[in-house]
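Final report, closing paragraph on structural work. Over the funding period we assembled a curated collection of sequence-structure pairs, and we close with a single example.
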Amino acid sequence: MNKDKKTSISQEDYLKAIWELRQEGQVPIGARIAEELKVSAPAVTLALKRLSKDGYVTVDKNNRIYLTNKGEETASNLARRHQLVEKLLTDFLKMEWYKVHDEAEKLEHAISPEMEERLLEIFGKAKTCPHGYPLLENRIGSVKLKPLRQAEAGQTLRISKVYEKDRKFLEYLDKLGITPGTEVYVNNKGYDGTFALKIRERIVHLGGMATNRIWVKILSKRK
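Its predicted structure, as stored:
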């Protein structure tokens, strides 16, 4: 878990962005990384040249980007520190769950190996981060989830994971009472993909974009 001291914060951000795109099932290419990090295409090109020269990534003839073993280790270590910081902020500092991703993005680079070990002692047995993503230490045997859009009317679901990189979206879910661990009943699924969900005796409505950003576990089949 020792951090490569020659890796800059900027390089770490690029490596983690590539790693996260892979985790989300997307093929990392320059345009997606530029969108993810909100930087220009020329900036991505320059960064990839440096990362390739330093042995962190390779780029194939179709411009698809791959992490080397060295890059994978650096990126996954940073992702682990990010999750541990999120747990620290919610569990100890009692920060709202929808705020901690942005704060962890800033703090993850400052975590020393010693502090990381201490945080692992405290949170290492936790199953998920505040947004429902399995902690890297505990991903083996994790339950396969489905996006909410694939659910059907009449099913009872547990909200398991939500997209964490859009604070406005997280705040919107929080106001609706939709957080990881919440049980919901699919009251109706419209032709246009709009869902009517029953949550604690009230009905809330979610459109297509939102249902693509929420993953669930089906607790009971369609009646």
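The CA atoms of residues 156 and 185 lie 4 Å apart. The beta strands are 57-59, 65-67, 146-147, 156-162, 183-189, 195-199, 202-206, 214-220. We thank the funder for supporting this effort.
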